[in-house]
Amino acid sequence: MSSFILWGLTASPYQLKMQSLLDFAGHSWTRWPDAAGRWSALSMAARLHWAIRRGAVRRFPAMAVGLDEYPAVPFYTEDGRHFYYDSTALAHHLDQHPERHPAPLTPSDPALAFVCQLIDEAFDEFGLYMVHHMRWVGSARSTPMGVMTAREFKSLLPPGFTARLAARLCRRQAARCPYLFSVAPGNYVAGVNPDRAAPPRPGFPPTHALLEEAWRGYLAGMEAVLAEQPYLLGGRFTLADASAYGQLGMNLVDPEAIELLEALAPRTYRWLCAIRDQRHCGRAGSLALTPSLQPLLRMICATFVPLMVQNAAAYARELAAGETLFNEAAFDRGRALYDGRLLGHPFRAVVKTFQVRVWRDLKASWSALDGDTRMALEHDYLPGIATALGDGASSPAAVAV
Prior knowledge:
It is a single chain. The protein is of the alpha+beta class. Helix content is 51%, strand content 7%. The protein has 16 helices and six strands. The protein has a four-stranded mixed sheet, covered by helices on one side. It is globular and about 60 Å long. The N and C termini lie far apart (46 Å). Residues 391-401 have low confidence and may be disordered.
């Protein structure tokens, strides 16, 4: 089996997801720059920076030009010179080499494959909002993210700069909360230094209650599945599990958030710890859709699905109006904003082009299913999904709860 270098941070849910995928597939990996010496880390950082500047960092099988954008981290490479990004793409990359990786991370059954894709994208896109909120609101007093990250980047820093970077990271991540869907009420008292307090944003409805309601709903859905079977799609680990682990497992280092998670969802807590400890690598076990998945999929259909519908509709409107700036750059300038509702709560967000690509991919996968499979999935597991996926600019009322 080959060895991968993951250029990333323990604090990143996508890093954790990649680690779990490689562990299951039987590939060794090291996390850089933390595991590298100073000169090796600096050399790799320079090569990666130059590859990003040239647009040479790839996504498997292809990058969606005009929609995808490079992350801050993580990236992966096998040879230290050809770099890739995207945690889901890593799973597909691994699945292309069955001789190196005999148990596919994406199921071969079409219905299972679609549900796997849906769960994966839901945790990647909406799950990030919940767990970032639980770190910077739920564990603002105690999260070690800044110190951990600065320590892992120490080989790239000038002497004596580690503590300064740790403080800067905390300020930056707390300030990014509104971009990542967590908007404090105007009268919010965080009980921490103002630099670590998740802020309100003028003109934006507060979303703390929305995110905490959703987080509890997702945990309840996880508990329902794990009470009946060891993994989300049955008897063994898949891409769906990797995505759920990456996001929820991010909070394993956040004392207050993980204490609450363990109290609310003890099975999920033990499951996260088992994957962290590489106890998910057995390849035996059948996969199947079971009724135990219904609560989790209902939450996905009540949150992620209507969010993607509303984002896609807003993207179409903004393009028609001549807008050219999206994602975080647009958010910082107050451009490409739209208003919506989830779980009965209002929100305001910026159009995210990478989520447009996610939604288009899901629509293509749905369209590729035969009619009987689509009908059975909607009836048994995914209420309202056909309306949502049939027209990305349709009303969110069809799927919002």
